[in-house]
Specification:
Layout (H helix, E strand, L loop, with lengths): L4 H8 L4 H12 L9 E11 L6 H4 L11 E2 L19 H8 L4 E12 L9 E8 L5 E11 L3 E13 L2 E11 L2 E2 L5 E4 L4 E8 L1
Parallel strand pairs: 2-4
Antiparallel strand pairs: 1-3, 1-10, 4-5, 5-6, 6-7, 6-8, 9-10
């Protein structure tokens, strides 16, 4: 049996069997979040400026309201707080996209958070872009990071845009995926209307 540090100390210190068992139970009863690793998540979401829009395919998504979602703060310290611009590593990619007429940035931000298994992972809500006539942001949705056997990111993002030839009507497209990610690698998740770059760091 592989021993954790508390168990190893108890056994090698000559503790009695009942005390050894008690220490084992105490270790197992520690809160799960005490062992959750922290990661830095950086996300860059961009829209295609002149996409081929098929209204029947892309325009009917409904944005869910998740009561368990966490909102990002802006003080730069602690979990779920947006980091200042000098902590971003996708700035060069953002600048290259900005130089091309076909793309617009909807969201670029980073934060630290503890990461749990998929059973306990909580989504983080992100919003960006301009306000639409219905008072919704162009970009709204959720990003969930979890760690089971592998580290995975699960975006569920919604991009709202004016219907072609009908500026008074808003259509919404959904990007929903599950992607295994590696530390310090830039990952691209695509959609015909918008896409995202993500990098995870320790």
């Amino acid at each position: 049996m592989r021993l954790n540090p508390v168990q190893w100390f108890a056994r090698n210190a000559g503790f009695s069997r009942p005390l050894f068992a008690l220490l084992t139970m105490l270790f197992l009863s520690l809160p799960a979040d005490a062992e959750e690793p922290w990661y830095k998540i950086e996300i860059l979401v961009f829209a295609h400026s002149s996409p081929a829009i098929d209204e029947q395919t892309w325009g009917n998504a409904q944005i869910p309201r998740r009561a368990d979602a966490l909102e990002l703060g802006n003080n730069g310290n602690g979990a779920y707080q947006r980091l200042p611009a000098n902590n971003l590593v996708l700035t060069a990619e953002k600048n290259r996209l900005s130089e091309q007429a076909d793309y617009r940035t909807l969201f670029h931000g980073a934060w630290y958070q503890p990461v749990s298994t998929s059973d306990g992972a909580k989504p983080v809500r992100i919003r960006g872009g301009k306000l639409m006539p219905n008072n919704a942001y162009e970009l709204d949705g959720y990003v969930t990071l979890d760690l089971d056997e592998f580290l995975s990111i699960r975006p569920d993002l919604y991009y709202s845009f004016d219907a072609p030839n009908d500026a008074g009507r808003t259509l919404t497209a959904n990007l929903k995926a599950s992607r295994q990610v590696e530390i310090d690698e830039i990952h691209y998740i695509d959609h015909p209307l918008f896409g995202m770059l993500v990098v995870i760091q320790r």
